[in-house]
Design a protein that fits this description.
With 147 residues, this protein is mainly alpha-helical. The protein has seven helices and no strands. α1 packs antiparallel against α2, α3 packs across α6 and α6 runs antiparallel to α7.
């Protein structure tokens, strides 16, 4: 029971500190869990083992995320996705419904690799100027990509 309550307190404390924007996020994500673990009665060898396990399980995902951001940023910069985006935008014109359908098509195709970072890096830079030009709220773009 104590661990569950401490976990919720830790989550709320981290969110509160991040929203205050007075401290860089890195110390918040490091110090708060360590303090909560000490409050729960864990010693430093147990905390070190928790940290080792956490880093071991999350490192492959972090490396993949970093690689996908770099890779798809380069691919987007050299224009790999431009023909597809241009084709869909040309056929959509200024029709709001077709623009949103085109957004969904671009996001679906970009998400075929399974990385959300790639989907966002391809879809948002391509479609945000069109949304601004047609006075469509950008939140619609986010909702379509999320769906």
């Amino acid at each position: 029971m104590l661990l569950a309550v401490t976990g919720f307190v830790m989550i709320f404390l981290i969110i509160y500190l991040l929203l205050q924007s007075k401290v860089h996020p890195t110390p918040i994500f490091v110090v708060v869990p360590i303090v909560c673990a000490v409050v729960c009665g864990f010693d430093f060898t147990q905390i070190a083992e928790f940290m080792k396990t956490g880093v071991t399980t999350t490192m492959p995902v972090a490396v993949l995320f970093i690689f996908s951001i770099v890779y798809f940023s380069i691919m987007s910069e050299v224009g790999l996705f431009d023909p597809l985006v241009d084709f869909l935008v040309k056929h959509a014109g200024s029709n709001v419904v077709l623009v949103t359908v085109s957004t969904a098509c671009i996001a679906t195709i970009a998400h075929l690799d399974g990385a959300l970072a790639a989907t966002l890096l391809v879809t948002i830079p391509a479609m945000l100027p069109i949304y601004k030009k047609l006075h469509i709220r950008p939140v619609v773009l986010c909702v379509i990509i999320g769906a």
